[in-house]
Batch of 4 targets.
Target 1
Amino acid sequence: MRCRFQHPFKVVWENPKIASICSAMPNMAILQANIAAALNKNNLSESDKNRLEEYAHRTASGYCAGCAGICEKTVDLDIPISDILRYSMYNHSYGDRKTALRLFNNLPAEVRANIFKADYSTAEKFCPQKIKIGKIIKRTCDELA
Ligand code: SF4
């Protein structure tokens, strides 16, 4: 039997374009799920893949794909958008506020000052994940600064 944590790994492992993944395993439950996924030799069914595809599509705006070359060049101030969205993910999705705080506060003061001055409208227009970049970046700044 597969638990919900195994499916994303199976998708990655079944993709011949991906050679390796790096997964944080901060607790025993995640470690055990990863081991179970590695030992499970059954491939995902088409319906599993379709459901995951649909889930990825429905939740896309909550996940930054790290394609910083698309959004960051559209903002005329120096702001590492994908990094800051990752810090937000550490804080909200992983519950790791300590890491989020450390990384955010390591940003140069000038970069942090730019956050509220920038116009993110073009970045949002081109973002393939349709993320509300400005809202999330500013919220992250409020939460972590
Ligand atoms: S374009 Fe969107 S998904 Fe890509 S790095 Fe920028 S915010 Fe993230």
Note: The chain has a mean pLDDT of 90.
Target 2
Amino acid sequence: MTAADILLKNASQLITLTGDNTAPRTGEGMRDLGIIPNGDLWISHGQITGLGADDGRRHDAALTIDCSGKVVMPGFVDPHTHLVFAGSRENELGMKLKGHTYMEIQNAGGGIFSTVRKTREATNEQLIAQAMKRLDTMLLHGTTTIEAKSGYGFDRATEIRMLQVAKILNHQHPMDIVSTFMGAHAIPPEFHGREKEFIQSLVDMLPEIAEKKLAEFCDVFCDTGVISLGDAEAVMAAAKAAGLGLKIHADEIENIGASAMAAKMMAVSAEHLLKSSDQDIRAMADSGVIGVLLPGTPYSLMMKEYANARKMIEMGMPVALATDLNPNCWTESMPWVISAACYQMKMMPAEAIVASTINAAHAVNRAKSVGSLEVGKQADVIILDVENYEQIPYHFGVNLVNTVIKKGELAVGGP
Ligand SMILES: [Zn+2]
């Protein structure tokens, strides 16, 4: 082994997640963290070059960080965010507290439509500055790769601008950002009664988005009062034909058949899944659709109901976790999501870790480069000030992340 740039020495638990990572993990595989006690990790030229138990081997490293009493693990992957938007909507909290639903707030001109207005008015520089702050917060809390959706434009120009902003952020910020086109986020009021025209305008944008590599995925919010099943299928079929991967917001408000369609169309992932039936879960498990679960969403909507993660895992469906960062559910913290997944969805701590790393990496098509600590993978590594991984969900509401190494460079903290 050649001299390392960084040596992380003697972690109380080195959570490698090594194993068969060619497909997202299911069942027992979701509880296998590949832990090396008292483990060391070597990093050179932005990559992981070695890992193992401290057996007295001597290696020179430009920087050695003592990780005694700490957990070292892959950086979190957040596979569902609406990163780029303008403004905030804290005024809606009071409305929710008075018992108004998401749809009622939206119909009163709030909700997504107020974010669309502010996003359209914002300059690229303003959008970049606001998103940059969110990315900094994510990095501070251990997230090193995210997915970012467009969807607050409702017109061609703003949607393209949102995707361009995400691309600029991917270059300017240490975070790796995987872009998703989500023009089908709702039917704009001006298109009511002319839904097919709006859907056609989205379909017409897809070849350009794919050609200019503005997005890798296409997502559709398919639900009652949002995008109908037929319209969602039309957008997804066109996205597939353009070469984009498929995602879908499914079974969140009601079950109108969205997750069943995700299985039929071999979507990479289906998100939310609060109302999915056993039959839907079976179909998604058979098609390898990853369930991206977002406990922050029912939390911020003050709902009692969460996705049935236990049933999904027991039925062999791969599960990932994400923040759903958006103006209606504002958190950048994957450790908080892990905690909510355990306390509200009864996921085991190990399952929540797998769902936030390697399975999340599969959900954004990055499992070959991130999501586990393996020789040759990109060195996206975090050090947490906890003695074991079970303390990550257990000790909630504070930032346990001590150091973040992104592509082999210190991005947060230090020795
Ligand atoms: Zn979402």
Note: The chain is about 35% helix and 25% strand.
Target 3
Amino acid sequence: MSSDAPILEFQQVTVDFGDSLGLDNVSFQVREGDARIILGAAGSGKSVLLKTALGLLRPTSGRVRVFGEDVTDLNESAWFPVRRKLGVLFQEGGLFDSLTIAENVAYPLENNRKDPLPSTDVFQRVKEALEFVELGHTLDKVPSELSGGMRRRVGIARAMVTKPRLTLYDSPTAGLDPMTSYTIVALITKERCVHNTTTMIATHRYQDGHFLANYTYNGQTQSIEPRRHHGEDGDASTRFWVMREGRLVFDGTQSELGRVDDPYVAKFMKPRMDCNGN
Ligand SMILES: Nc1ncnc2c1ncn2[C@@H]1O[C@H](COP(=O)(O)OP(=O)(O)OP(=O)(O)O)[C@@H](O)[C@H]1O
Ligand SMILES: [Mg+2]
């Protein structure tokens, strides 16, 4: 793959469920180091898009390329090595209740039978990933002993433990209070900046995108700080998408989103209060 080839590309991808379209003719390219904030109403296709990128749903038509490889027609076993290069935080969380936190985070490493790591390396990587999300003290606990926000942080540790170049976060702040949501999106920003991870987030919260587009992690001070923008259009590598009924109806920067007249698209621009005050 040449260095400027897209890391993820959809070409006119449709996912037809028979009675509805999960994705309707969606095309895009995402390049190394980019971030995408996928906004859209419930049922608009955000999760279907991410699951299609992971090969968990198959396109009815169109092409999908991951790291330059056309994966559209890969069979399930050929998908395994591709998936291993992707980090993922599922909307449902997906932690195994019966495993310890350390075992949960180790899972993507130990599941790699083709190229297994020695167990001391696995332990070291798990410890580092949990320390990154400030949960180094929870190795031997089980998920039910942690709060919802902590479990989400474990999910982030598990997504990053394989050091993926592309990480997909499905609704990482859903159901969390504003402070915990802030912690989660700050960790995602830190992960993006420290490892230059290409980052895609499906979310209902405009604030998550605003944070990712406008804040950065300073490794020297080890703190989050405002990003210095060049030009009036802000951070060009962080783009906002809006989905509606399986279609990608907006693709642009934060300031372009702010200038859109379309009422459906415009409503994702404003921080809105939901019934929990989030
Ligand atoms: N496996 C499936 N089989 C049939 N229909 C599906 C399947 N997965 C998703 N859908 C449908 O596709 C549409 C998009 O669903 P999706 O889960 O992507 O929405 P979403 O934007 O992620 O919503 P939310 O914000 O609630 O997470 C919905 O109408 C959903 O019912
Ligand atoms: Mg979803």
Note: Residues 178-195 form the longest helix (18 residues).
Target 4
Amino acid sequence: MRICFWIGLWLIATLAFAQEPVVRPQIVARKPHDPEAFTQGLLIEGALWLESTGLRGESTLREVDRESGEVLRKVDLPEETFGEGLALLDGKLYQLSWQEGICRVWDRESFKLIAEYKYPGEGWGLTTDGKKLYMSDGTAVIRVMDPETFKELRRFRVLSEKGPVPYLNELEWVEGEIWANVFQSKWIVRFRPSDGKVLGFIDLRALPLVMDYSQTQDVLNGIARDPATGGIWVTGKLWKAVYQIEWPVAANGK
Ligand SMILES: [Ca+2]
């Protein structure tokens, strides 16, 4: 519990008094989500969610109908694997694992395993700019990875006016920015992929997402941008819904 205490203190210090723009969204749409999906990676392709789920013995790669939440196709990962971030690039799905140090590469169409790459340290979130992969590991560091080799090309720290922003989790590329869930919080941080400068925060604390919290539900995790509409969708680990969120202006006027 000690780590939760310190994360809580850090959240109050860094997020609640952010110097950067803060927006407080509203929910504008809601779709069903498998309450047994421990969401670790989420993205949109047309009418589908592509999703990576975690927990040892329960981790999957899945293709889900966005309207109904029905799981259309699923690959179960090895028993010892804890699935993490997911990105789609050039017809391939890249799927991280938490502490195993393996990135699996799947053919998007066949869901067949194409390759496995080793990497040092932990894997949390993953996204892409269409050329390279961007990977979080629970710290403030983002590693930029070569999709051909999964070797590190460079790295940067995500820095706000208050200092580094650690606990970066699921990622999403949003119009030239990267957005990240901040683990154990209801905040999303927006930052610049060239140098990690924080551009703003999205504060989800006031949303009635709490209705969905229960003994079995876990933290917010999962951001997906609909390439067709620009809509932003969020969910959490073991949540029974995915929400589309929108906001008019920065809540702190910046
Ligand atoms: Ca995502």
Note: The pocket of calcium ion is lined by residues 42-43, 127, 170-172, 223-224 (CB under 6 Å).
